[in-house]
Design goal:
It contains 14 helices and 8 strands. By secondary structure, the chain is an alpha/beta fold. The chain has 2 domains: 48 residues; 254 residues, 2-enoyl-CoA Hydratase, Chain A, domain 1 (Alpha-Beta Complex), CATH 3.90.226. Helix 8 packs parallel to helix 9. The radius of gyration is 21 Å and the shape is globular. It starts with 5 loop residues before the first helix and ends in a 6-residue tail after the last helix.
Length: 314
C-alpha cells in the first residue's frame, strides 16, 4: 500500500472486519458495508484524480502492477520465447518471442522486473544489458524477414549501468536498437506499462505508435538520478519529478506519445486483467491503423514522428 493510500486501506480493513462479523443484525451490517464501499470508491476517485508527479512515480513502480509476463499470459496466445543474442548470451531482463495477438502473428518483447525477490534477481529488476538489446535487434530483423508486426512493452528504470555492461558496449547496443527500429519495414507498436526510463526504454520504444498507461512514467532519467545531479541529493526527487514532465499527460501534451490508456479506478495494480484488456484494445486499434500503410510509409512515418519531437508547431 502506497503512503497516500493509507486512508483507503483503513476503510477497506473496516469493510473486511464488518464482512467477517457474525450476528443477528446482518441486514444492518450489509447496509453499512454498502455505504462504506461507496465511500471507499469516492475516496479512491478523489485521491487518484489529484496525483502529483512524484506520486505517479510510486504508482508506476508499484510491485503489484501488471508486468510483462502478465500481459503475455492475458494478451498473447501461443507465446514462444526466443533466447540469446547469438553474440554473448541470454539476458533475462528483456524477454522476447513469437506469439499471436488477436489472431495476428507478432513478435513481442519487453522488460520483466519480476514479482518476488528470486525473480527480481533473475531478471535484474528489468534493467537490460547489451546482450538484451542485441537480442531485440535479432528479433526485429526476424520480424521484418517474415513480415510480421512488432509489439513492445516497456517497463524499466533504465539500461543496466554496471561495469560489465559498459565493457560489452551498452551505449552502442542501445543506439543500434534505435537504428534498427527506425528502419524496420513492419509496424512497431510500443506501450509504456510502468517505467519508461532513459535509453533503456527508447531502445524498444522507437515505434510508429507509442501508448502510455495513465499512471506510467516516461523520462530521460529517474527523479532520484536527476536530483542527485542537480541538487547533489536524492531528497529533492519530488521536485525533480515535477520538473522532468514525465507523466502521461505531459508526454501527450508535448507530442512525445500518441495516446493514453485510462487505468481502472485506483490504478492498474488493483484490477490487472481490466487494465490489460484496455491496453490490448488500444494496441489493436493502433496496429490496424499502421497495417493500412505500405512498408515504406511505415518507415517514413516513424522517421517523421521522431524528427518532429521537440520542435514547436509552425
Amino acid at each position: 500500500m502506497l503512503d497516500f493510500e493509507k486512508p483507503i486501506l483503513e476503510l477497506e480493513n473496516k469493510i473486511s472486519e464488518l464482512r467477517n462479523a457474525s450476528g443477528d443484525d446482518t441486514l444492518n451490517i450489509a447496509e453499512e458495508v454498502g455505504r462504506m464501499e461507496t465511500k471507499a470508491q469516492r475516496l479512491i476517485q478523489q485521491i487518484y484524480s489529484k496525483l502529483t508527479p512524484s506520486q505517479k512515480v510510486t504508482v508506476a513502480r508499484h510491485p503489484n502492477r501488471p508486468h510483462f509476463k502478465d500481459y503475455i499470459e492475458n494478451m498473447i496466445e501461443d507465446f514462444t520465447p526466443l533466447a540469446g543474442d547469438r553474440l554473448f548470451g541470454e539476458d533475462h531482463a528483456l524477454i522476447g518471442g513469437l506469439g499471436r495477438f488477436n489472431g495476428q502473428s507478432v513478435v513481442v518483447m519487453g522488460q520483466e522486473k519480476g514479482s518476488n525477490t528470486e525473480e527480481r534477481i533473475k531478471h535484474n529488476f528489468g534493467m537490460a544489458r547489451p546482450e538484451g538489446y542485441r537480442k531485440t535487434q535479432r528479433l526485429m530483423k526476424m520480424a521484418e524477414q517474415f513480415k510480421i508486426p512488432v509489439i513492445t512493452l516497456v517497463d524499466t528504470a533504465g539500461a543496466y549501468p554496471g561495469l560489465g555492461a559498459e565493457e560489452r558496449g551498452q551505449s552502442e547496443a542501445i543506439a543500434k536498437s534505435i537504428e534498427v527500429s527506425l528502419n524496420l519495414k513492419v509496424p512497431i507498436i510500443s506501450t509504456i506499462i510502468g517505467e519508461g526510463g532513459s535509453g533503456g526504454a527508447i531502445a524498444i520504444a522507437t515505434a510508429n505508435k507509442i501508448i502510455m498507461l495513465e499512471h506510467s512514467i516516461y523520462s530521460v532519467i529517474s527523479p532520484e538520478g536527476c536530483a542527485s545531479i542537480l541538487w547533489r541529493s536524492a531528497d529533492y526527487s519530488k521536485d525533480a519529478a515535477g520538473a522532468l514532465k514525465l507523466t502521461a499527460d505531459d508526454m501527450l501534451q508535448n507530442g512525445l506519445i500518441d495516446s493514453i490508456v485510462k487505468e481502472p479506478l485506483g490504478g492498474a495494480h488493483r484490477q490487472k486483467e481490466k487494465a490489460i484488456r484496455r491496453v490490448q484494445t488500444k494496441i489493436n486499434e493502433a496496429l490496424q491503423e499502421i497495417l493500412q500503410m505500405s512498408p515504406e510509409q511505415q518507415v517514413q512515418s516513424r522517421h517523421t514522428k521522431f524528427l518532429q519531437m521537440g520542435r514547436k508547431a509552425a
